[in-house]
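Aim 2 progress update. The chain analyzed this quarter is reproduced below.
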Amino acid sequence: MTRRGSACGRAAATGFTLLEAIIALVIFSMGALALYGWLGSNLKTLERVDVLQRRDASVRSGLQAIRLVNPLEEPRGRMAVGSHVFEWESQEVEPVRRAVSQVGLPTIFEVGLFEMQVRVLEGGAEVGEFSVRQLGHRQVGALEED
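Predicted structure tokens:
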């Protein structure tokens, strides 16, 4: 009769040894660290994308609001829309002159082209800045009756 606890029986034993388990844990840990590093990098990138999307939305909102401003009448100013505040300052690009119609006849308006520098503020902090060219106008004459 043979004994199961003999030296021959140990060589035929199945399963992991302690050394194999430690090596498996080291390999798993290296993979997990790489995965967590990649995940952290992706989270930082998503945060930057979120900030840029909010900035883009603020600038688009500012562009819509500034379209309502006549830079000839208000060369500089400040406008609050929701949680945003828009500040602008205008510089004349083309001098103000009498407008003409499509057929070359003078109209009742004077027009000029302006470059507007716009700052977008949210909560007192600047979140964006942009520049836009816009037409300024004012009525200087009256319509003639036919």
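The two ends are 131 Å apart (CA to CA). Strands lie at 76-81, 84-100, 106-122, 125-139. These observations will guide the mutagenesis experiments scheduled for the next reporting period.
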